[in-house]
UniProtKB/TrEMBL annotation:
Occurrences of domain SAC (ranges): 257-626
InterPro entries the record matches: hSac2 (IPR034753), Inositol_phosphatase (IPR022158), SAC_dom (IPR002013)
Domain annotation HSac2: ranges: 696-846
One BP term from GO: phosphatidylinositol dephosphorylation
Stored PROSITE patterns: HSAC2, SAC
Protein name as it appears in the record: SAC domain-containing protein
Region: Disordered, residue numbers: 105-172, 329-366
GO CC annotation terms, alphabetical: endoplasmic reticulum
Skewed-composition ranges (Acidic residues): 131-155
Protein species of origin: Hypocrea virens (strain Gv29-8 / FGSC 10586)
């Protein structure tokens, strides 16, 4: 089986976009791959090279990221710029700095896109030689994911262009003249004046009422040109999402200019260099050897794997790779020795012309090393997990499978610069991850309160599964919890401690998981971060017991016995300070085995080490919270002053902004690219401007809620249970619409309906209402439009529900679980059992002391949740449509009610179910408030 292609040529042919793999010498060792126009298929193609083609008809890529398909429009993502950041065993490690997104659904658009990419790449190459070439100034820098204000390298390839329709005078003028407004207009154009074809080509809605996008800052990239649908059968293609241009820009930012994805053609960087499996078999496929947990483009590269194009399957890892060389002396001179000089630092940046050559040792002032001096190489690799991946406030805590948010494996490797077998290779691994409990935090506060979710049993089962997986992977686990013991973080820290105590109760003494709670903010108050040494003193013996992995002469001599799992609330700032302290201690121990005492070295600050770990902290922080890490000044210099505190305040404000504005769409894009959700997630996002957590199974949650409600509220064991459903209802009876609507549980037995309001955070029944079937007088089925802020909300076929009318009687029961409410904040209730609203305006003057009277007929409204979801199909068969679900429920209620209701002799039974709009589209349009419309328009303006 062939190895990875070092480079590929991308060029458009009559029958597809051709990807021609090349060897390092530019040869064509095997058949190229083709992406056909109009779909995402990949097949073998004839040997077609662009040797005789025009220079602008092809471009050279450094690897294939994968294929993206949205609304049946397919895009090829390729690496066009890279930078070597390290080498392992003499083999280069690269970071992706630029990607190209090429449309594959139309030949004309593909050719145009390839031509523009080729021209841009050649322009950039020439401008790098001639700094006066102003063509490079026309290209805009991308921003790291969700980071609006941070500067990055100005080296991003932008695929595509504005529509080439000659009727578009504005677009033509902007692109061709490239005046002072060129950068601004390449990104966004006014929608006014665009033709229908142009809107469709750009993936925008044809609705005149659609809200124009917010004009972004000058740091964002031009809209990627999308393939024209004129050459395809338009009847077979779904309408392009209005969010498609934003998705394509996000792909460029995420895979390219964020500088957060690393790869190697020759070595598996998802595994430790001390692992024999980390060196790829030159005759095998690298993607089969990498850890799936750290294989970030596995989903989008799968079409090439399925087509047998293994040579194009280049695994990408998100995280950090950094490397430094340093010199240490086994017999350092005394401080008063006039010839004594400090150790020096050399960044490992091998020249691109010889990327695989090992770095030379660092010597003082380019002189030879003293006989007692040795040159070492320290490599730091952080690997972000694809499980529960995402952004700060949208992915917190744990999921049902025991995976935690922001899980990062950080490995520090000590070796010789040449990685020769005669020198030992030391490896020390740590992990970080969110607190393994179900909890959420709002993005709308500088210090939000963690809100615990679900029952203690549910949290216990998930945490137990998490630590069982860690123990199987790493061995002994030492927990270091850095959250505050008081204040807003105290309750979740206490719950974490209690959960671990319960887990340990079921384990043998040797298998127990030690739990160390170090209140970082209390111990280091007054900016005395050096007090972290107290934590190190406490864990010193445990760290040395866990030890390091050592490989000598190609053989594994010793294996690390366990791992330290560190967390704070975000697992970023406090965590990085402590992890760097642990890593420094282990580095000192490893060098002692080499006969070197670091405490005797003249350079006590070891700036090379601090800088490496600070860079690591910044990288992980940018990927999760969109900013650099806090407390970075202390990590770099081991000093803290007011300037660092002010910088941290600015970081906090930036995180607040990005959490409120940018992260929602970016989270949806990450879930889509990882294959956790389908492209329908963007339709759902456009409806509510929010994202759901794909790791939380909504179906399982609803099943558990139905089961729990059945156990709690159906008191008569003689009643036969016929079904339970989760539906959407107003927050009070006798009304059809409220803000917000809420998910409720409806149970049906052979005697009664049970309407349960459920606390989804705590997994408890907050109240329920029992309605005897004999008292039901009417069931109305029809359109139920509760919002008009998006096209999906106004679809009368999907927005359906029913209203049950009944005469309250002695057999009907209403109960409220007051244990779920605090005494202080408990609301007052009316005689009907509903929360009593606070009197407003003059209405309060005329309201009775006991609230409104009980109506003769009481009505309960239910709306069907949307059946179609962005979650991948579970294989359980096709889902019922919304109307099918409503018809099934109402028919069953009617059938059982007929069995309970008595008909007078000679009388005729009247049907209970009738058809009719509950809230029609016209009525909904008239009743939709201006505030609701304004709120959604503002969200769409900012987020979409």
């Amino acid at each position: 089986m062939p190895g990875l292609a070092r480079k590929v040529l991308i060029f458009a042919a009559v029958d597809g976009l051709i990807i021609q793999p090349l060897s390092s010498k530019g040869q064509k060792p095997f058949q190229p791959a083709r992406v056909k126009y109009g779909d995402a298929s990949v097949s073998a193609a004839r040997d077609q090279a662009p040797d005789s083609a025009k220079p602008d008809s092809w471009f050279e890529a450094l690897g294939v990221v994968g294929l993206i398909t949205v609304s049946r429009l397919t895009y090829l993502v390729t690496i066009t710029r890279r930078e070597q950041v390290a080498q392992v065993f003499g083999l280069p490690i690269y970071v992706v700095t630029q990607v190209a997104v090429t449309p594959c659904s139309s030949q004309s658009e593909a050719e145009e896109s390839v031509r523009k990419t080729a021209r841009l790449l050649r322009t950039e190459t020439s401008s790098s030689v001639n700094n006066d070439d102003d063509s490079s100034s026309d290209e805009d820098s991308e921003m790291p994911l969700s980071t609006p204000d941070e500067e990055v390298d100005d080296d991003v390839v932008v695929k595509g262009d504005a529509p080439s329709d000659p009727k578009s005078s504005v677009a033509e003028d902007v692109i061709r003249r490239r005046g002072s407004y060129g950068r601004f207009a390449q990104r966004w154009f006014s929608r006014s004046g665009w033709t229908v074809d142009q809107r469709r080509t750009m993936g925008m809605s044809n609705s005149p009422s659609s809200t124009p996008p917010l004009v972004p800052s000058a740091s964002q990239t031009p809209v990627v040109s999308l393939p024209s649908l004129q050459e395809a059968d338009e009847n077979l293609l779904a309408p392009a999402s209005t969010l498609l241009p934003k998705l394509l820009r996000t792909i460029q930012v995420l895979f390219g200019s964020s500088r957060s994805f690393y790869f190697s053609y020759d070595v598996d960087i998802t595994r430790s260099p001390s692992d024999n499996a980390s060196t790829a078999n030159p005759n095998g496929s690298l993607y089969t050897q990498v850890k799936k947990t750290f294989f970030w483009n596995r989903h989008v590269i799968q079409p090439f794997i399925d087509a047998g194009q293994d040579a194009l399957a280049l695994p990408l890892m998100q995280g950090f790779v950094g490397q430094r060389t340093f010199v240490a002396d086994s017999q350092p001179p005394q401080i008063d020795d006039p010839g004594a000089e400090s150790m020096e630092l050399k960044d490992l940046s091998p020249p691109p012309s010889a990327p695989s050559s090992p770095p030379s040792g660092t010597a003082r002032h380019s002189l030879e090393l003293r006989p007692t001096e040795r040159s070492y190489l320290i490599t730091l690799i952080s690997r972000r997990s694809t499980k529960r991946a995402g952004l700060r406030y949208l992915r917190r805590g744990i999921d049902e499978d025991g995976f935690t948010a922001n899980f990062v494996e950080s490995e520090q490797v000590l070796s010789s610069p040449a990685w020769d077998n005669s020198s030992p290779v030391y490896s020390f691994t740590q992990i970080r991850g969110s607190i393994p409990l179900f909890f959420t935090q709002t993005a709308y506060a500088l210090k939000p309160v963690p809100v615990l979710q679900h029952s203690e049993e549910t949290n216990y089962n998930a945490a137990k599964q998490h630590f069982e997986r860690l123990s199987a992977s790493y061995g002994t686990v030492q927990i270091v919890n850095l959250v505050e013991k008081r204040g807003v973080e105290g309750p979740i820290g206490t719950q974490y401690q209690n959960t671990m105590a319960r887990i340990n109760d079921g384990l043998d003494d040797k298998a127990k998981i030690p739990f160390e709670w170090f209140d970082f903010h209390h111990a280091c108050r007054g900016m005395k971060f050096e007090n972290v040494s107290h934590l190190l003193s406490t864990l010193k013996d445990q760290l040395e017991t866990l030890g390091s992995t050592v490989k000598d002469n190609g053989q594994l001599v010793r294996k690390q016995q366990g791992v330290v799992r560190t967390n704070c609330m975000d697992c970023l700032d406090r965590t990085n300070v402590c992890q760097s302290s642990f890593a420094k201690h282990m580095l000192d121990l490893q060098l002692k085995e080499e006969g070197i005492d670091m405490s005797a070295q003249i350079d006590q600050e070891t700036a090379w080490f601090n800088t490496l770990w600070a860079d690591n902290g910044d990288a992980v922080s940018k990927q999760y919270a969109s900013t650099s890490a806090m407390k970075g000044d202390y990590t770099r210099t081991r000093k803290r002053d007011y300037r660092g505190a002010l910088n941290d305040l600015g970081i906090s404000l930036t995180r607040l902004y990005t959490g409120m504005v940018n992260d929602y769409f970016s989270q949806a894009a990450i879930d889509f690219l990882l294959g956790n959700v389908t492209a329908k997630v963007f339709e759902e996002f456009e409806m509510d401007m929010m994202t759901k957590d794909p790791a939380v199974s909504v179906e399982k949650m609803r099943e558990r809620a139905v089961e729990l409600c059945q156990k709690r509220v159906v008191a008569d064991v003689s009643e036969e249970f016929h079904g339970g459903w989760v539906l959407i209802s107003p927050n009070a009876a006798n009304v059809l619409k409220s803000w917000p609507m809420e998910e409720t549980v409806l149970l049906l037995t052979d005697a009664a309906l049970y309407f349960c309001r459920f606390d989804w955070d705590m997994d408890k029944v907050s109240s329920f209402e029992r309605v005897t079937l004999a008292s039901i007088t009417n069931i109305k089925i029809g359109a139920y439009i509760t919002s008009t802020i998006s096209q999906t909300h106004m679809n009368e076929a999907r927005n359906v529900g029913f209203v049950v009318s009944y005469q309250p009687g002695k057999s009907d029961v209403r109960r409220r679980n007051t244990r779920t409410l605090s005494t202080k904040d408990a609301p007052k209730f009316t005689a009907t059992g509903e929360p009593q609203p606070a009197p407003a305006g003059f209405a309060g003057l005329f309201s009775g002391a006991n609230g409104p009277k009980e109506p003769a007929i009481r009505k309960l409204a239910f709306k069907a949740p949307y059946a179609d979801s962005s979650m991948p199909a579970s294989g359980a068969g096709p889902r019922q449509t919304e109307m099918q679900k409503i018809d099934t429920i109402c028919s069953e209620i009617e059938r059982l009610a007929f069995e309970r209701q008595v008909v007078k002799e000679g009388g005729e039974r009247k049907k209970l179910v009738e058809k009719g709009d509950i809230i029609s589209l016209d009525t909904a349009r008239r009743s939709t408030g201006l505030l609701e419309q304004l709120g959604h328009s503002l969200k769409k303006l900012v987020w979409a």
